[in-house]
Write a structure and sequence with these properties.
Ammonium transporter fold, globular, 1% strand, two-stranded antiparallel ribbon, mainly alpha, 435 residues
Length: 435
């Protein structure tokens, strides 16, 4: 009889949640939340190859490897930089008047080996999750100046941009003592930190370097819309980790963020197809992919904080706003090669400000009052203006210095030969180059 009791007790203990068995004052690992955050980290990393395919399919055949390398190189360069100083500069306690963060234990990730965050996840997991955001931000920028930059200068550019733009803005918005966070700015998963900063920075570099040779008179057709569609699909899948993972939990907020992400992506795609059908009589695959991205970007700052109807409307309106932005770009004639500002910048700004119209009741204290909504609108607008201005100014300085010292733009003969050949001594396909 005693052995049966002991067996029953042992079986019961196996199913007791780890947190209930932890010593008082000691945070135990929540295995469910940790498993989800590990999955989210993997999903966000998957977005980088997805972005490489999306961008790689949109450029000419002679530039496909050079363009894809911009995304893959960011995985390596920012992956190392984040481990060395990026995490410390983004999430350490504020220094230099709150301009950025720092914590000695975060340098080289040397002091978090046994650190468990209050959410019940090892700090290693959170550091790696956030590190994937740091990777994708500069990789997004590269689409704005595709087909015309030197690879070695690009490497230094993304390193400097990450240190001087991404890390400070990340600290302002997401660190506990960041001044925009304390002000009450809402950025659930990176509309301001990632999409506005990368969109604005891409526009600045594109304008500074000038158009691709032959643009816009020479037709510059995508080399593979099949690849672009597959890339868009991978981005859509990875975005569930991007947004839902940003809840840093495995509960109701996670479910909300995932649901709203799906709704906005689908409505953005529907909106763009509808607009093209009315404007041109046909819906294109590139338009579909653009609509997906517009919806995903717009919901990123709002995921988990707006209603499902709000997500539907944000996606639909974002597709229209971005469509108009691209038409304006074509009229003005500047060469944002892959419409980084037209989609990421514009949809990021729209989502960050537009979310105020669709916040879940009670999300902001007193949200039922018009004054509260107006107050939050002011906060969101100020955060957007600060991020826009800071990213634009610092990116301009970085670009000007690099162009003056190393040369950022390739020489004419290198551009005409293509980046695959001139920068990597390779070619993406076993075919003759097609312009």
């Amino acid at each position: 009889m005693g052995s049966k009791i002991r067996l029953a007790l042992a079986a019961f203990l196996v199913f007791i949640p780890a947190g209930l068995m932890a010593e008082p004052g000691v945070i135990a690992v929540d295995t469910g939340t940790t498993a989800w955050m590990l999955t989210s980290t993997t999903l966000v990393l998957l977005m980088i190859p997805g972005l490489a395919m999306f961008y790689g399919g949109l450029v000419r055949t002679k530039n496909v490897i050079g363009t894809m390398m911009h995304s893959f190189a960011a995985m390596a360069v920012i992956g190392v930089l984040w481990m060395v100083v990026g995490y410390a500069a983004s999430f350490g306690p504020g220094i230099l008047g709150g301009f950025m963060g720092w914590k000695n234990e975060y340098f080289l990730l040397q002091g978090i080996d046994e650190s468990i965050l209050p959410q019940g996840i090892p700090e290693y997991v959170y550091a790696m999750f956030q590190g994937k955001f740091a990777i994708i931000a500069p990789a997004l920028i590269a689409g704005a100046f595709a087909e015309r930059v030197r690879f070695k200068t690009y490497i230094l550019f993304i390193a400097l941009w990450s240190l001087l733009v991404y890390n400070p803005v990340c600290h302002w918005v997401w660190a506990a003592d960041g001044f925009l966070a304390k002000m009450g700015a809402i950025d659930f998963a990176g509309g301001t930190v990632i999409h506005i900063t990368s969109g604005v920075s891409g526009l600045v570099v594109a304008l500074f370097l000038g158009s691709r040779r032959g643009y816009p008179k020479t037709a510059m057709h995508p080399n593979s819309l099949v690849m672009t569609l597959m890339g868009a699909g991978l981005l859509w899948v990875g975005w569930f980790g991007f947004n839902a993972g940003s809840a840093v939990s495995s509960g109701l907020d996670t479910a909300r963020a995932l649901t709203l992400t799906q709704i906005a992506a689908a409505s953005g795609a529907c909106g763009w197809m509808l607009i093209e059908g009315i404007h041109h009589g046909k819906a294109t695959s590139l338009g579909f992919a653009s609509g997906v991205l517009a919806g995903l970007v717009a919901i990123t700052p709002a995921a988990g904080v707006v209603t499902p109807v709000g997500a539907l409307l944000l996606g639909l309106i974002a597709s229209a706003v971005c469509y108009i932005a691209i038409q304006v770009k074509n009229r003005l004639g500047y060469d944002d090669s892959l419409d980084v500002f037209g989609i990421h910048g514009i949809a990021g700004i729209f989502g960050a400000i537009g979310l105020v119209l669709f916040l879940r009741p009670g999300f902001v204290s007193g949200q039922s009052s018009s004054w509260s909504s107006l107050h939050q609108l002011g906060i969101q607008s100020l955060a957007v203006i600060i991020a826009f201005a800071y990213a634009g100014i610092v990116t301009f300085v970085i670009t000007a210095i690099l162009q003056k010292t190393m040369g950022f733009r390739v020489q004419e003969h290198e551009e005409m030969a293509g980046l695959d050949n001139s920068q990597h001594a390779e070619q993406g396909y076993g075919l003759i180059h097609i312009n």
